[in-house]
Amino acid sequence: KKTTYAGTLIPSYCTPGSMKLQVLAITLLQHFSNAFVVSNSRIKTTELFGSVRGLESGKDTSVEPTEGGMVLYVKAAEDGKSVGDCPFTQYVRMVLEEKGLDYDVRPCTAETKPQWLIELYEGKMPALRHRRECYTESEVIAQYLEFFFSGDEYASLAKPKKKEMAEASEVVGKIFPALAKYLKHTPDGDDEDDELKSGLCEALNLLEAHLTSEGRTGPFIVGDGEHVTLLDCNLAPKLYHMKVGVTAFKDNAVGVDDDFPAVAGYINTIFNRESFTKTKYPEETIVWGWGNARSK
Questions:
Q1: pTM to 2 decimals?
Q2: Of 14, 86, 108, 233, which one is the catalytic site residue?
Q3: What stretch of H or E contains 129?
Q4: Does the structure show a pLDDT above 60 at 210?
Q5: Beta carbons of 223 and 161 less than 8 angstroms apart
Q6: Which residues fall within 8 angstroms of residue 186, CB to CB, at 6 or more apart?
């Protein structure tokens, strides 16, 4: 069942319940506001929650989320059993690790996905099942975790000012699209390949400038760089793909250490963080994943 308001599909990321869930839904709508057009009429919270996303519909879902009972369904690697190469999955796992939350990981192939995941969520992964709830899309999952598990008992990620987050997000958002186009392109070394390489270098130049901008005193992405945020967890896996992919497929055509020293320093810092080392997959898994993408 899907919910619409004023003829517009309303994303149903939460089930009916507490005021916190209502606030989260509105927050997520604002976060993805560029993807939706909603009329100026007032949106009622009952309309936001008209679609049940719980896995046990008909039962009371008003209890606020609590720690425990988390299962993350993720893309499997070539062997069908270990964790695959998805950077968006690693993003979610880094957030879980930063917060010290317990969770199980269930790698899935197209053949081993649970039927409920296929029928209710189009088989999308990563998918976080938390007791009776399930959430897909890495950013939605990350925001869900940050919203509900940010008290003193959790190692909460920093919450920067909106302006600082927006500025950093604009820079970070250019990296992966440029990287994906470059790594997917064949044949390597032709004119179009050179243009795509230049696009990635332009994105890295923006990141280099951001990391060396005035007023920064720490190594991380947002604001003065003193604190880890969701955006660091988002960017780190993508830089891992860049490091491995450019070496494996492009003969190290992008010299990060020489041309982008601040980016190289950031990579060294974030790659040595425990949340990254505990969630990274082997480099050969990345090569396998991009090899499949390049062959299509």
A1: 0.81
A2: 86
A3: strand 127-130
A4: yes
A5: yes
A6: 294
